[in-house]
Write a structure and sequence with these properties.
three-stranded antiparallel beta sheet, Arc Repressor Mutant, subunit A, 6 helices, mainly alpha
Length: 155
């Protein structure tokens, strides 16, 4: 069996290539990559705050602010008070935003579904569980490492 370092290298190369494919698809489709992230996050039909999207999608606050301003100016989203947190605003797709998201995302979803279908056929639905498990463990270990470094630097 390959050692863990080589497995990590293969995994990072594969996920980086997938990220690059999303980037190229977005640019070719006339959507900025971060606008694609925002549309993807909002296309589940649920309201989300900018903070939630920043945390879930690892997008810097300044970047999401810029994308939200552009989408609001285009009439694609509105900011509404969150029922349980009145100081925060939830992002909601307008009817024009829903139409734009559907049009922009339709081809992408077909491509994703083809790839996911092949992966699930080969590895089963546990494939996604395994990727989620790895990513959660990696993120927790990275956060712990960064917190430890911050503590050591403040002493």
């Amino acid at each position: 069996m390959e050692d863990l370092h080589q497995l990590n290298r293969r995994f990072v190369a594969a996920t980086s290539a997938a990220d690059g494919a999303y980037y190229r698809w977005a640019v070719r489709s006339g959507v900025t990559p971060h606008t694609l992230d925002l549309l993807y996050a909002l296309d589940d039909g649920q309201p989300h705050s900018q903070k939630q999207i920043c945390e879930a999608w690892a997008i810097p606050k300044t970047t999401i602010n810029t994308v939200v301003k552009a989408c609001r100016a285009a009439g694609y989203i509105t900011l509404e008070p969150m029922p349980d947190q009145p100081r925060q605003r939830q992002l909601c797709l307008t009817p024009a935003g829903m139409a734009y998201a559907k049009k922009a995302m339709r081809e992408l979803y077909v491509i994703e579904n083809q790839a996911m279908s092949a992966a699930v056929d080969r590895f089963g639905p546990e494939f996604v569980d395994a990727v989620e498990f790895y990513c959660a463990r990696f993120r927790a270990a990275m956060e712990a490492n960064l917190s430890e470094k911050e503590e050591n630097n403040s002493v």
